[in-house]
Design a protein that fits this description.
11 helices, eight-stranded parallel beta sheet, alpha/beta
Length: 272
Amino acid sequence: MNEYKSIDSHCHIYCFDKTDYFNDLPLFDYMNFYNIEKCSQIAVNESDNENVIRVVSQHPEKLFGIAYINVRKMDEYLAKLRQGVKDGIFRGVKMHPYVEDYQLDDPKIYPIYETCLELDIPVLFHTGVLHFNKWVTASDTDNFDAKTSCIGYPVQFGNVLERYKDLKIIFAHFGGNFYPEFLSLCERFDNAYMDTAWLDHYSERNLPPVTVQSWIEHAVKFLGSQKILYGGEDIYPTDIEKCNLTRAQKDDILYNNAKRLTVFDKGIIINR
């Protein structure tokens, strides 16, 4: 078991029964092994939302939900989000425009951002270029060919952050292929953050390739440790422990930042 506790802020609901990046063992085995106090359960379609509500209701001490919003049924889904936040189920929203066929800075999407501001919850965005044309977890009722124009480009995120400066946005995967641009956005905007999920996928695609540790250390050098959240997906707490960082910096990444942003219950912030 890992010595220090952590919070995984980027874990999908499909990992509950079988965690593919932890030897296909159940989620709680992964959590116990790495001393993960709480773990997100991310929804990416309507049925996922219902499953998240079910498992978080059963295990509120261990899990918290990240909601899916169908942008074509905005009012209905925002009402569900409000209720889920009120019930203590949802602690954020996941957005993935590439597989849902929309532009993230389209004014039609603004009600999502305004609702998240109202509820004081963050928006977790996929970032980085992907190479698949369809995604099996796209909307239950719609089937889109993924469009490159919808991947989410740094300038679009800049547009949103300029309009909604208090909106908390977490850029998954360190921005992927667009890391330097997302690093700059996080330097510029107080409420822009990054998570470490799937960094191994993008780190080996860098030219030259970089290690996960050197990448995290680079981000901390410019952002400090309070703007980076631990997210799993083939990244583990031990990967953070191996970084050349202080104990306090590691605690921020592994635990404190997620507690402050997504698991917004009362609690002591670790400061060793």
